Amino acid sequence: MIARTDDLIATAASGDSAAFACADGVADFGVATDCAGLSAGEPEAFQAHHWRDQMPLDPTWSINVQRTDAPAAGTSIPSDVFYKRVDGELCVVDVAWATVG
């Protein structure tokens, strides 16, 4: 999961993340520069009580992504990626965004 997310970040940073998206997903990958300086955090089983907006998408895993730099306050950044398994492969159903305080 960590390697898959690092691959997603690298691909998204080059502007091509569509190959990671689930057909029924709603992921907003942003623009290539949004992924600069990101790295994969720790995966965990999807927690429906914490991520109610993603519940209808039926994800099985989530993983936080972290910035290696300190973005300016007010910057919107990807914070969590939600995966599910389709035909034996992990695909992205959603990406949560957060605003730096």
Give a structural overview.
12% of the residues lie in helices and 37% in strands. It is mostly beta strands and 101 residues long. A four-stranded antiparallel β-sheet has the order 1-2-3-4, covered by helices on one side. It contains one helix and four strands, in the order αββββ.
Produce a short descriptive summary.
Helices cover 12% and strands 37% of the residues. By secondary structure, the chain is mainly beta.
The ordered string of helix (H) and strand (E) elements is HEEEE
Give the strand line-up of the largest sheet.
1-2-3-4
What is Rg? Answer: 13 Å
Class based on secondary structure composition and strand pairing: mainly beta
Query: How far is it from the N-terminal to the C-terminal residue, by CA?
Result: 28 Å
> Low-confidence spans: pLDDT under 50, at least 5 residues?
none
Which structural traits does this protein have?
101 residues, 4-stranded antiparallel sheet, 1 helix, 12% helix
